Amino acid sequence: TYHRILSEKDNYGASKMGEGKTICLDYSSINIAKPFHIGHLSTTVLGGALYRIFNYLGYKVVGINHLGDYGTQFGKLISAYKRWGDKETIEKGGIRALNELYVKFHQEAEEHPEYDDEARAYFKKIEQGDEECQALFHWFKDLTLKDVQKIYDMLDIHFDSYAGESFYSDKMQPVVDELREKNLLVESRGAQVVDLEAYNMPPCIILKSDGSSLYATRDMAAATYRKNTYDFYKCLYVVAYQQNLHFKQFFKVLEMMGKDWAKDLVHVAYGMVSLEEGTMSTRKGNVVFLEDVINKCIEKAYKIIDEKNPNLENKEAVAEAIGVGAIVFYYLTNNRIKDINFSLEEALSFEGNTGPYVQYTYARACSVLSRAGEVVDAPVQITTEEEAALVKTLCRFGERVCSAIADYEPSYITRFILDVAAAFNRFYHNCTILGADDPAVRASRVKLTEATKIVLGNAFDLICLSKTEKV
Ligand code: ARG
Q1: What is the 429 CA–ligand 1 centroid distance (Å)?
Q2: Which residues contact ligand 1 via a Cβ below 6 A?
Q3: Does this model's pTM top 0.85?
Q4: What CA–CA distance (Å, rounded) separates 57 from 15?
Q5: Catalytic residue among 3, 9, 21, 37
Q6: In the prediction, which pLDDT does 32 show?
Q7: How close are the terminal C-alpha atoms of the chain, in Å?
Q8: Phi, psi at residue 362, to the nearest 5°?
Q9: In degrees rounded to 5, what are phi and psi of residue 209?
Q10: Residue of 28, 29, 166, 213 to mutate, ligand 1, most atoms within 8 A of C-beta
Q11: Averaged in consecutive runs of 10 residues, what is the pLDDT profile of the chain (471 residues)?
Q12: 40 is an active site residue
């Protein structure tokens, strides 16, 4: 029965199975000075959910935003800023202004190839610790992080580390040395590579012909650093499937180096997101800024709520919870590997299998409870099929949380929520709760409603979906 739910409350479904184990969770991992677009949201919400689910099962989770903050593009930005930028515009415009500078650089560099040389020189200066270049680079970084923080706040997502690619600048040499010592490096057209033909993969490039490092080199240094620092049980990378080969390659190279922990590295891949035609107008440079999508969703949610329930208090806050929740839920509905075509209309519908629908169901349970008053202390009685089905569904929570972890699939929680919502709504429509004649039956049904509220609330928390007491 559901007694355990009522007594364990917030802890119902939690466990200590992960005690003593650390999970490194590389997610969101944005690129500095680049727009946060609709595709980046997948890693952010998937990672945010995995973070909470692992935590719930007693694991220690280290959330890492592996910032893309390394490469000649930062030299380009400095060059562009010095030529066309001004402080105030950038301060005000944040990522958008930086992105405009970047786009302009590319347009102009077509006619002025010497700009590219200049950019390379600036990047070198950043690396060598030149004061002015370092200061500009850090400023771009701070501006970007301040901008995305708004999104992280809305989603209620946190990181324990922002060690990005540049953090590993001085940690790659030992990796290169070790590869050389183990005779794994071969020269190929001037570059230093690890041959992976035996594994049916193209070679993994470690150093370019000019001696500079690559994305894979930095990832190998990062994995090594994480193992040494956190002694992880698993290190997860929530990254799009476009990068499948990259992960397979550097995991394999670490294995060839004899790192037995290479088997604990997991690429948690996800599908592509496209935006339904006409949902948003694209700006210059064809990027859709996530912030615009979220704001549009909140606006639409506000309209819907205003029509449904004009006298609701805190309409703004509820609209934010529903608008953001609609997006989060939509992203987490299907298995992560599936491509999705994001539709605002669909995400916001109160009728489909959506965030608004489940949030509304939660509010419905809250409303029953607030009207119930004190109930008599009577034993649980299950007299109808609907009640039995609801109890059975609720009690599956713990098992669902465990499978979500085993397959790295927050969508299991989302679908569990939909199952609970459906079972509760059937119970709500077919069984009289507050109007039940027999006080013992009434009490039992109120308690079942409370159990539903608890389980839904716990599940919402796991996928970063806000709980709305009133809609
Ligand atoms: N910044 C990269 C991108 O946007 C993702 C980084 C993922 N993490 C990693 N350790 N490679 O494509």
Answers
A1: 48
A2: 26, 29, 31, 66, 68, 219, 222, 237, 239
A3: yes
A4: 5
A5: 37
A6: 92
A7: 30
A8: -60, -45
A9: -65, -25
A10: 29
A11: 91 97 98 87 97 98 97 93 95 92 93 95 92 96 94 95 96 97 96 98 96 95 98 98 97 98 98 74 60 92 93 94 96 96 92 96 97 87 96 97 98 98 98 95 96 98 95 87
A12: yes
Across 195-241, where does the E strand assignment appear? Answer: 204-207, 234-240
CB atoms within 10 A of CB 347: 24
Give the residue from 415, 413, 422 showing the smallest Cα distance to 462: 413
According to DSSP H, which parts of 309-384 are helical?
A: 315-331, 344-348, 355-372
Nearest CA to ligand 1 atom 1: 68
Question: What is the number of the ligand 1 atom nearest to the C-alpha of 68?
Answer: 1
The confidence score (pLDDT) of residue 284 equals 44
Length of the chain in terms of residues written: 471
Amino acid letter for position 384: T
Please tell me which residue in 9, 34, 60, 467 is annotated as part of the active site.
Answer: 34
Please give the distance, rounded to the nearest whole angstrom, from the Cα atom of residue 341 to the centre of ligand 1.
Answer: 22
Token pair listed for 311: 């006298």
Q: What is the DSSP string of 388-415?
A: HHHHHHHTTHHHHHHHHHHTT-THHHHH
CA angle 236, 222, 18 (to 5 degrees): 35
